[in-house]
Design goal:
Helix content: over 70%
Order of helices and strands: HHHHH
Radius of gyration: 25 Å
Largest sheet: none
Length: 157
């Protein structure tokens, strides 16, 4: 293992990332304080989203990863991870529409479709695609490993 570059050893190098990050946070705070955003509602949303992630989403994802590592063949794991991540992002993006936030009863064309049913069908299609991908990858991996083991074991033809 090689040593890190000389420029990465000193403390000054970290400031190249810290200063722009702090400037961006400061800009966001100034924009938040200087606007008419209700700070109590914003704080509840900000803290609530962090708690939702840390107490629900992350443990569920870690548990699913642990379960996948125990139950799925190694070749099928990337398909399961990608399928789960895509399904999760699709659900997260469609959640405001599913809840109906911002819907206007005077405008029936705002949400003209059954969002819940459509989300379910799309997520099922994504997970089915991931299952097919994982199955194909597992079959291919078994063929490759099986072909390598059988050489030289039988009589010559």
């Amino acid at each position: 293992m090689s040593a890190p570059a000389a420029s990465a050893r000193g403390l000054w190098w970290r400031w190249l990332f810290l200063v722009p990050g702090l400037a961006a946070v400061g800009y966001g705070v100034l924009g938040l304080v200087g606007s008419d955003v209700p700070l109590g509602a914003w704080a509840a949303w900000f803290v609530g989203s962090a708690l939702l992630h840390d107490l629900l989403i992350a443990p569920v994802w870690i548990g699913l990863g642990w379960l996948a590592a125990r139950l799925l063949p190694r070749a099928a794991r990337p398909a399961a991870v990608v399928g789960g991540a895509v399904a999760g992002v699709l659900t997260l993006v469609s959640l405001p529409f599913l809840i109906g936030d911002g819907a206007d009863p005077d405008n029936p064309s705002f949400l003209p479709h059954d969002i819940g049913r459509n989300l379910l069908l799309i997520v099922l299609a994504v997970l089915l695609g991931a299952a097919v991908w994982g199955t194909v990858a597992t079959v291919r991996a078994r063929r490759v490993s099986g072909a390598g083991r059988g050489r030289g074991a039988g009589p010559a033809r």
